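Format notes (please read before filing issues)

Several people have asked whether sequences and structure tokens are stored in separate files. They are not. Every record keeps both together, in the order shown below: the sequence lines, then the token lines. Line labels are part of the format and must not be stripped during preprocessing.
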Amino acid sequence: MPPTGLPGVRRLATRFAPDPATDGELLTRFLDGRDEEAFAALVGRHAPMVFGTCRRVLGNQADADDAFQAAFVVLVRRGRSLTDRSSVGGFLHGVAYHTALKARAMAAKRRAREAAVRPPEPPPDRSELLAALDAELAALPEHYRGPVVLCELEGRTRREAAAALGVPEGTISSRLATAHRLLGKRLRARGFAGAAPAVLLAGAAAAPGRLTAAAVRAAADGPSPTVSVLVSEVLKMMLLHRLRVGGVALAVAVVFGAAAIGAAPRQPEPGPRAVPRPGPAPAAAAVRPALPPQPLLFTGHTGSPSRVAVTPDGKHLITVSGNNGDRTIRVWDYQTGKELRRLKLATPYPETDEPVSEGWEPDQWISLAVSPGGTRVVTGSLGGLAVVWDFARGKELRRLAVGARVAAIGFSPDGRHVLTATREGRLAVWDAATGERAADWSAHGAPIRAAAFLPDGKRVVSAGYDKQARVWDAVTREELFRCEGHAGWVEALAVSRRGKWFLTGSDGIWKWDAETGKLLAHTTVPGMGGVTGLALSPDESRVVAVSYDGSVRVFGVDSGELLKQFDGQVGWLWGVAFAPDGLSVVTTSGGHDGRRRGVWTPADFAPRKWDLTR
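Then the structure lines:
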């Protein structure tokens, strides 16, 4: 194993004096100036957390020692890949956890060969629970994981964590509380009822001094053969993930750069703007710099897909496009972006080629939904037709003769009914198996843009160009209440699975009580423009909003804080969907963009998958 370029670090193997510099400063000093003391300080600072993580996952002392050393060697090899160098702790926890998993897999193979002469040692008490805790901690978004690592695993004060991460101390407290809640919920889902994350995380194991020194020596002289194999496997895993997520980023950047030359932004059709309204004061979200786009592209459509959906098992992405002659539903492998199946959309109803209004053609299919069971999809067209499909077999199951321009569509929670909403302002409920219309009524005096069943299956919510959201009894068709106050058109909805509240997208994001219609919160971002699509994370702690400005923004549902922002997608964004694991989100453009006409490329039509863990 060649040396890593750290001559002289050996003499620091037993010297880990505290250094007042931040993690980012220490890492920069080491990477840019090969500052040996800075590296030793980093090892000493994070050793207890890394060692505790390895011990919880592995239990076996020798295997934990190897994983501990390997984690710091990976930091040496991959430190320059950290775009935010204040997050060294979070990065090291993720590396330690995945290194420990790899070490456990390698050890299992080795012990299987030895089983004939010596049975494996029993795992220590609570090992399964602690391993599950680290798995869920590693799966948390960085803005939640970072404070937990610093405060709970490394024992820093909230003030110190706030200084290290560059956020207010109150934000650290809020994120810790949210992280504990998420970890507790996920542990309960794994069957560990009553597990208290704060108690389990407290008191990280202290790394033996000899092991801390060994980690520094491994970086200086190269690791032992066992650790070297482990480092190689972890780096290979990280490289494969990076290639899968960002392998097309360079080509995308070239396309985007060419598109931006001489570009003059075009504003969307303006909705009516209201004077300041009564109610709770808007919660102003802090604007953060946009992160560099490194999305995975699903390339193949020849027209803009207007809507996207991810199947409940997280295996497939479903897209629909009726623009520019595409007229297909496509099924993709969500992890790789490979197209698996292509379905030709049905002949529009009624069978006519006459435009229905303002340049919209009957064969434009702009709405899509996946059934709760994940085996069927339903699509709706501006030609007045909705179709239920078995997407796995590529089979058309049922046509719904809506007879009006379908703008939004969805399944009931039990999958037995389909809800359609039209630009003519009407709602209808259909039997998904027979195609019979169960209810039909005039809901708005303007085009409806979004509609969905509430989780009880007995009520629906709709919203549109009248700047209102309305909740209805789906059986009696009685209007239960209205949600008013939006300054512009309401073009997006997201409903809590528990049915306690729902979100509307208009001039920002509005949160409403689903029982009373009371306004609970309103989040705005200067310059965001009208919100055109919303998607809730599975744990309902975050919401992704897309808009006319082409940006993808992630907000905290409770705090209204802007957590992430991605830029670079061409056109006004319409479709957005969360992955079931909450780690990624996919978006697509509706195909409207005033900067270029007639020079679209397949990359412009490609839905994009954004990694929320970066």
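For reference, the curators noted about this record: The first helix runs from residue 23 to 33. Residues 97 and 134 are 7 Å apart (CA to CA).
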